[in-house]
Structure formats: structure tokens, C-alpha cells
């Protein structure tokens, strides 16, 4: 009887606790964002390309990347450096050919790295054939974009609403050919597709199907909150957006509160529809799960809906920008802890958490939070439960590069002025990747690069950091190795601030060693008692990872009730 019930228990356990692979490879994956223009140039034109990425895939393997998402590689006039897609089915010649892309997929498969593409549903380029045909009024494409003839006030023609574009100025641009305004939430060269037209939705789903059938493992979906505007009223008009009184510049995006142009309820359903496409292709092709990563700077309750509900699957990875958006150089450990809890405590229980600490739109970690916090932040990123997302260069500690107004190319900055561009420009985080101390940091053979190279490349580069025991790169690699531990993959999480200066996380799993990440984010020497916040620690703990601020070494022991931390010391300990 006992034997029988044991067997039943074991069988049940097998049924109820699926292996990690069955749960989905992505649940504990390390994602890495490649900005292809700046990763590696293979053909000497000073701009990175697909063959460059293929050449360097072994590096991604070296740092343990599971999947990489590539910023757009499609045909584009590059008004927003590829986020203005002219043909959703073609590779831009600047990046290479379809054959180059196929080679990239083949090489990635050999190395067991999954390729994820950027999907830009909100808009196309104004040079996209769909837009040209829409502007010409062709029946099939007439309503592919959002058009309006405008209002006439005192005999003067005006845009239909006061809506302001993310890149400054009106969201409406007059089109002479069509004799109407078209809507663009971003640049005038990025007209918004009309998601109230079912044919647009279908056309964009076809784009997803095409690339999935080619062998990509999913998409990062761009600018999700912007996809829908409020529905027009019965007269075909839209309401103006209210003012944010604290902003005085009427051209600035933050001048208005975007209640009618962002986070409309229809957006959630669209994400579910995109997921359906993904699930259908999973059923059609089999193999590993395909995934959606969604880019939305949106309220937490909206983000949680992206995950899905009781009847619909959603985006497996709604980017968690809590830390990237809210932590600054002065934040204390309580604030870090609160933001981490925000996600963990609000996430549906069967979903995976994700942590994004950098991307091509945001100031780099070392510049935003301080160069001496780079390792601490990477420790946080890689020991929190679930999915980590690293932006290229953060693993070696690249920092923002000053680029003068004359050299600035980012449209978000170029549409402003010499006084304000530094607040808006994203060029400083998009500079060429620093591979070595050789000419042009080993990025290109060209004499010039599309954006200036960082001055510090002789010190901050992959080649040099490989040879320094406690370089950012080697610490990153040690953390990645640690992620193979079952506790890091499946363990519970507890997050606590020990005063304003020290943040600690504990990962634990029954029958396994626990891991405790302890970060002194400030400049005082601290002595902390980990027993005061965590239970079931062994009285002694072992150092597993240290940074270069630490006076301790790997495998040293410390008492859990008095861990001494140097200024900005960041460590991972384990129970013994
Ligand atoms: C978000 C992208 O990350 C950004 O780089 C781009 O400018 C906008 N979406 C518009 O596509
Ligand atoms: Mg090139």
C-alpha cells in the first residue's frame, strides 16, 4: 500500500512539476539586445551589419546569452535608424542580404542561441509602399493609415487635434497629394498604421508569420502603448488631450497628458491576438516556444494585463522597466527594494518575472547610476528570479559617450535645439561596441564610424577585460555560470533593504544551497546582520562572487550575522 501510494505520489509529482524545458526555455533565459548598427561592422563602411553579428555570435555564447533581440534590420530610410520600416519583409542593404540573415540563423542554431526580431507595429516609414498607395487614395490602402482633413478655424486650416508627437511638434502632418493630415506619434517619416482597419491587423500578423516560419523565436514589440488612439466620435473627430500644467514648452511631448493616444484598452487585445499567431506557429512548426517581449512604458496594472488573463495568453515578457525608469544615482536601498517588490508582488503567479536594466533608448547603467555601481547592478539583474535582459556593452561597463550638437544624429534630439538636445539624445548609448584596444576598438576597418567611438575604449573593451580577474566582463560571466544552479533557476526570492545603503536578495530552494546577493550601494563601510531579515541561513556563509571593491576572495567565509561591506562592495554569498 505504501509502495503504491509512493508510486502515485511520484507520478503525480511528475505530472504537476514539469521540467524547466517543458515550462519554457525563456523562463530563466538571459536575453541580450544587439543594436546592429553598432555591434560589429564586417564590410568596412563604419556601420555594423548582420555578418558582423554572425562573426561575433561566439562572444554571446561566451557570456551565456540564451537569446538575442536585434533592433530593426529591415529596409529603411533610417530617419529613426530602422524604426521607420519601408518594407517589413526585406533586409536593408546596409545590414546585408536575406542570405546573410539565413546564415545568421544557421550559425545561431549551431550555437543554440535564439534570434528574436524587432517588430514595429505602430508605424511604417512614409517610404513604405503601403503609405505611398494610401496617400494616393488606392482603395485597398486608403485606410491603412490615420487620415483627416483637419479643422478650419477663422478660415485657417489646422490639424484635427492638439496631439503632440514623441519627437516634438504636432502629431499631424499635411500631405499635399492626399490633401489631408496623417497621424504620426513619432517622426513625420513614421506614419501611424490604422489598427481600426482589420486589414492592417491581418497584414501585420502576416509579417509575424513570415519571420517565424523563417526560424526566428519571437519578437520584441516596439512602442506598444502607441498603437491605438481613442476611437473617433460619430462625426469622425477626436478630442484634444489635456495639458500638463507644469510643462511650458508647447512643442514638448510632456506638454500634454496622453490619455487619448496611449494605453487604450484595445491595445491589450491586440497583444493577445499577436500571441495567438505565435501559438498557432508553435502548433504548426513544433519545437521550442516562440516568445513575445513587449516594449511598453505603461502603468503596472496595464503591464500585468499584457501577460494574459484567464482566457487569453499574452506577451510572455512584458518588459519590466520599473528599475530603469525610477532608479537614479541618489536612490536608496528601500527604493530599489520597493520597485523590485512592485513587479514580484503584482505579477500573476504562473508567469515569469523579467528585469531590464538597459536599452538603446536609455542612458547606460554606469552613467545613470555611477560607474562604481555597474557590477552591483549586473548582480541584481542576474540573480533576481526569471529573465534578465542586457543591452550590448553593459556587460563590459560601457558608459554614455558625449556627442556634440553638430555630431548628433538621433531624430529625437535633432528635432529640438542646441540647448535641449542633451536631455533628449539617445546617441550616447548607441556608440560602437568596444571589442579591443585596436584601431576603432575592433568595431570596423573604416576610418570613421557612424557615431563617434568612446574615448575610454582602450580600457573598456572585451579583449582587455577577459584578462582581468574582477573586470565587469568576468564578474558578468561568473554570475551567468551561477544561473545554472537550480536555486537560481527555480528558487524563491526574498528582497530586503538593510537600511538605506544595503540591498539584499535571498534565493532559496528546499534541499539546495541558498544564495544571497548583498549590495552596498553607497560609500560608507557597512556591517550587516543578514539573520535580521532572512531565516534559515547557515551561521557561516561562503563568498561566491565578489567585485573589485571587496577585500574578500571567492570561497572566503563570513558570519551571516556580521557581514562587513566596503563602499560599493557587491557580493553573492552562499550557505555552506
Ligand atoms: C521605441 C524604440 O525603442 C525607439 O528607439 C524608437 O525611436 C521608437 N520606439 C519609435 O519606433
Ligand atoms: Mg557595415
Automatic annotation (TrEMBL):
Keywords: Glycoprotein, Glycosidase, Hydrolase, Signal. InterPro entries: GH, GH13_cat_dom, O16G_dom_2. It comes from Drosophila albomicans. It is an enzyme of class 3 (hydrolase). The keyword Glycosyltransferase does not apply. Residues 33-430 form the Glycosyl hydrolase family 13 catalytic domain. Residues 1-21 form the signal peptide. The gene is LOC117569601. GO terms for biological process: carbohydrate metabolic process. Belongs to the glycosyl hydrolase 13 family. GO terms for molecular function: alpha-1,4-glucosidase activity. Its EC number is 3.2.1.20. The keyword Lyase does not apply. This is alpha-glucosidase. It catalyses: Hydrolysis of terminal, non-reducing (1->4)-linked alpha-D-glucose residues with release of alpha-D-glucose. Pfam families: Alpha-amylase.
